[in-house]
Amino acid sequence: MGLTASTLVENVDEAVAVVRGRSGLEPRVGVILGTGLGGLAAEIEVETEISYEDLPHFPLSTVESHSGKLILGTLDGVSVVAMQGRFHLYEGYSLQDVTFPVRVMGSLGADTLVVSAAVGGMNPLWDRGDLVLLDDHINLLGENPLTGPNLDALGPRFPDMSRAYDPELQEIAISSAMELGIPLRRGVYVAVAGPNLETRAEYRMLRRIGADVVGMSTVPEVIVARHQGLRVLGLAIITDVCLPDALEVADVQQIIATATSVEPKLTGLIRAVIGRL
After folding, report:
1. Global pTM?
2. Where residue 90 sits, what CATH number does that domain have?
């Protein structure tokens, strides 16, 4: 059994108080930087950096490629709060833990969440290094961050997910990508628990149920963001090709290297989108 809703609100309030004690910035946009995608942090005009260790009730990332800082500042004149390093179910955290920073971002004032991720590509027409605009998702984590008692202060009992990823933000991303000359795919993300990568049979199943890319994050954060009424934009980098009949042995270092090499394109796209908000 997770935290009660009232305790969760109290914990969020405590973390928000620490952030506000260090920064007077009122962020408009929250950003989650995924595996190998921390470079955007260098583009932010930083007002304050806070280690996760200094924030009450924040989990600590156990993934080598993830830093552990909350960054407040401006990006192209827009106030932002960015997570440099995220959390996953496979690390042993509950989904309430995983999504706790999103609660904090919303309580700080953010009304938009930009979430990025490194993903495996299952669409045979797409390739390693492609950028993908998330249009929808499938939750196969086996859990939901909203399970348990609901409190109206957090959001409605049954949040609508018919537009989990904001259509207006998608159009801004598409037009920004065209202006920058960046090819941008558009598809469905499926979240699995991990931490192992999938078998050939599992990739076939995931493709047949309608997914284009697969990962181990993103969906819980999006669910909680929508629960709070935040608009969501999702962007991903295909770091490995997951075609079951031509499946290669996974190389995690190569996956991270691919994310890092393509990250400047994603950074440019996110900057362009945020600059138009």
Report:
1. 0.95
2. 3.40.50.1580
Split into its structural domains, the chain has a count of 1
- Helix, strand and coil content of the chain, in percent to the nearest 5, comes to 35, 25, 40
Angle between helices 252-275 and 167-180 (to 10 degrees): 100
The set of long-range contacts for 153-156, using a CB threshold of 8 Å and a minimum separation of 24, is 153/5, 153/9, 154/5, 154/8, 154/9, 154/103, 154/227, 154/228, 155/227, 155/228, 155/229, 156/227
pLDDT at position 36 is 64
Rounded to 5 degrees, φ, ψ at 56 are -60, 135
Reported as a single tens digit per residue, the pLDDT across 32-47 is: 988 667 788 889 999 9
Domain range for residue 20? Answer: 5-275
Q: Which two tokens stand for residue 183?
A: 């090819």
Task: Report whether pLDDT(171) > 90.
Answer: yes
Q: What is the pLDDT of residues 80-107, one digit of tens each?
A: 999 998 899 999 999 999 999 999 999 9
Mean pLDDT to the nearest integer, 170-187: 98
Contacts of 260 (CB under 8 A, 6+ apart): 36, 39
Q: Collect all residues with Cβ–Cβ distance below 8 Å to 87 and sequence separation of at least 6.
A: 59, 61, 93, 97, 98, 101
